[in-house]
Amino acid sequence: MSGVREKKLGSLYRRRVWPSVFALIFFAVACLATFAVFLYLFVMCIMGTKVVGHYEDAQRVSGILSALMDGGDTVEEAAEEMHDYILGNQDICVVDRNRNIVFLTGDSEPDFTRKLQFKVGREFTAVADSKSFLAPDEGMRTIQSIPVKDIVGSVFDPMDEKETRTQWLGETVIRQDYWLRVPFRDETYALYVKSSLQAQRQDIIYVYLFGFGVMALLLIPMVLLFVNTIRTAVLQRRMSRLIYLDTVTGGRNWLFFQNYAHRILSRIRNNKKAFALVNLHLERYQNYRACYGVKAGDELLEAMSGFLNARVGKNESFARYEGADFGMLLACTGESEKERQENCRKRVRSLLAELTGLRPNQKIHFHAGIDMIPPYVDKDGKWYHRRKDADVEQLYTYANAARLESDTVEEQRIPFFDQDMLGRQKWERWVEDTMETALHNGEFQVYLQPKYSPASGKLVGAEALVRWVSLSTGMITPSHFIPIFERTGFITQLDDYMISKVAKMQAEWMIQGRKMIPISVNVSRAHFAQEGLAEHICGLVDAYGPDHGLIELEVTESAFFDDKDILIETVKQLKAYGFRVSMDDFGAGYSSLNSLKDIPLDVLKLDGEFFQGDEEGAKRGEIVVREAIRLARDLDMCVVAEGIEKKEQVDFLTRQGCDMIQGFYYAKPMPVEEFEKKVEEDA
Description:
Elements: H1 2-70, H2 75-82, E1 92-96, E2 101-104, E3 110-120, E4 122-129, H3 148-152, H4 161-170, E5 172-182, E6 189-200, H5 201-243, H6 254-266, E7 274-282, H7 285-292, H8 294-311, E8 317-322, E9 325-332, H9 337-356, E10 366-373, H10 392-405, H11 419-440, E11 444-452, E12 459-470, E13 474-476, H12 482-488, H13 491-512, E14 519-523, H14 533-542, E15 551-556, H15 564-576, E16 580-586, H16 593-598, E17 603-606, H17 615-634, E18 638-642, H18 647-656, E19 660-662, E20 670-671, H19 672-682
Parallel strand pairs: 12-14, 14-15, 15-16, 16-17, 17-18, 18-19
Antiparallel strand pairs: 1-2, 1-6, 3-4, 4-5, 5-6, 7-9, 7-10, 8-9, 11-12, 11-20, 12-13
Helix pairs in contact: 1-2, 1-5, 7-8, 13-14, 14-15
């Protein structure tokens, strides 16, 4: 989900900034092109007007020449005679088809090697003048660049300002002579009339003023667009800081970490490097906030952020995930995987030690889990591909799973995530996902393990044990699902299920006239937090109607370390309803003899660990068992020894006066049908 949110934010950033940048660039180019086009058209308009005027004058010359030739003059005579009618500086040139000059006036002549083209509405043909300043390889130059200071810098007499200004503006600053060809009725000859394309100072001023005007008109919206682009970029930068800001620590948040860590991992140059994704957890943070205040808690997280910021290097990053959990991406050095893990462990251990000293007068503790990211290679051992599939969120989840694993393995304070751990995580997830359905489908079956009297060798009782016969995976032993049920709280539902099953089974035996055997059922530690537990259990049993005395409720020893007052009251109520209550696994933990004094128990079950170990340990265990049996006798309690597998153990317990023995020596847990046969055989 966070990945989708990150993509949307990145898309928003690109949509808001880059369109403005592209629009600015496009508009700037459009402005320059528009300015050039308008300026060119304006110049052509001025120059074209002059060329058209020259062409009209040349047409008049052509008309005069044609009229003279109509009177019978030869072309030379007509040209000579016509010369008297034209203006003084308007030279003409008549050439034949081979461009040989037939008649020429003036001191210059057409240069037919340099053809000029004018296109003003229509196309005009001309050639350069032989004495023109235009170089042969330059083509046609219409206007030379004239500095503004040379145009407007002249000073005229204020007394004759109007006349002087008119003269000054009319001065020619650019002149280009050329020969303009005009139609002539006699196709044997061609007529060229010399013209002078002149640009007065006023023309140049008009061009400059027009250029400045167009530029000003285009510059105003471009400046506004530029200012808007800058404001948009600044706004996006501020928005980016807000999006990637951790409001608690003042540093970068988890969204930034995901994005930046993914970029680091996906760079080609980092493919040869190993990295580690670390989950760093501050223990009992809520307790710290409760003791020192919310502000002090936030200041501690801010100090942690500053410390980590000073410890991460290039190609590394960190951010707060949530609460007091931080994620870190660290580069790992080493030739082998083992060496990289060891170097990474040392570095993280050093960080934890330094973090512990952030508050010298306060005890703070940290926990960490690591998921290693090995060098990335393809199947051929090459490094050419990116880690495109690097899922930072998933890698952090693995690191967090490793850290949670270390809670149960005290000596392994900085564990690394591995596939076995992933298998356990998947198994726990499967159990949690299917346990409700399994209970509804009756996949949990009751197995009974007989209890025998060592004195008579008779079957005198049994313990109800649960087995999960899954429709998909088959038989599942309790050790694979009971701890998960206890952690999730589902164990209370399983307790109710087992009590109901045993009550129903006892009721059926009574109806069938079978021998009634007392059955013990476990009641989990979590169940004693339930208000009205005694009434609840009584209701489950009474739904089927068996005698309460035939059902024994086993309470694990660990339950005696919770609220003792509630436990004592519940046990008294259960006994008042006629149920027998036993302490299960006595000796498995730190037994409280004081509990035996305060709680009116009926049965004491000795844990099988008393009989395990070497020869010396077994002897010491026998002493403890002997005294425990004597203590139970004095407290008017029945004694059951479980986990018994050897005849020597049975003989010892018989001599000590143990009431019942439960273990593989006599029988393993078995289905109800098999247990019923064994009861019949024993009878």
